[in-house]
Amino acid sequence: MVQDQTNKLARADKSELRRQRIIEAAATLFILKGFHQTGMRDIASQAGISLGNLYNHFKGKHEIIAAIAEMETAEMEPLLDLLETPGARGRDVLIPFAKAYFRTCSLPENAALSAEIIAEVFRNPETGRAFSGTRKRLVTALEPHLPKTFSNRAATAGLVLDLIERAGQSAVGTSDRARKDTETALLEMLKRTIEPV
């Protein structure tokens, strides 16, 4: 009985590792080739598994995109924790968040995958729904840190996120100095625009 349980756990662990390998392989290919140019066979080959085994884990690319969205949510948890720190408000939270989020958005692999996903959202709105949960949580967590003088703090929070994301993406491929200048300008602009709560 104990041996059966151990075997089941080992199989579950192997299955989860294989699933993770598939997600990482797909993300890599989506970045390199694009979503539509990447087939399930390509993903299986990149992950080092058979096509049949791939279909045991995912029915199609859209399920893999949903899994990437879940992975993104998990990666955003530290940033959400920062925004959701009890008692902390305003610039004291907003500026460290903006700095960390800018750095996340300026990673070449994140910027490339983000561009690919945005393009896919235009073709298939269902893809957007997979990523909207994280975006909504970020907006909701950011909103209390904005001054009450904004008539629509939720919309303003969305614009702040857009600004940080776009600044990060525009810094991709630039020199370290240019990236630092963009980050500094972004943070300075936020400090001047966002008065203390």
Q: In this structure, how is the largest beta sheet organized?
A: none
pLDDT averaged over residues: 87
User: How many β strands by DSSP?
Assistant: 0
What's the number of helices? Answer: 9
Unreliable stretches covering 5 or more consecutive residues:
none
- Specify the overall morphology: globular
* Multimerization state: single chain
Structural class of the helix and strand makeup?
A: mainly alpha
The H-and-E topology, N to C, reads as HHHHHHHHH
Strand % is under 5%
Please give the alpha-carbon distance between the first and last residues: 60 Å
Helix content: over 70%
Query: What integer value in Å does the Rg equal?
Result: 20 Å
Task: Describe the model.
It is a single chain. The protein contains nine helices and no strands. The protein starts with a helix and ends with a helix. Helix 1 crosses helix 6, helix 5 (91-105) packs parallel to helix 8 and helix 7 (125-142) crosses helix 8. The protein has helices at 2-33, 40-47, 51-57, 61-83, 91-105, 108-123, 125-142, 153-171, 176-193. The protein is globular and about 60 Å long. The protein is mostly helical and 197 residues long. 23% of the residues are buried.
Structure in a nutshell:
The protein is built from 9 helices and no strands. The protein has 197 residues and is mainly alpha-helical. It is globular and about 60 Å long.
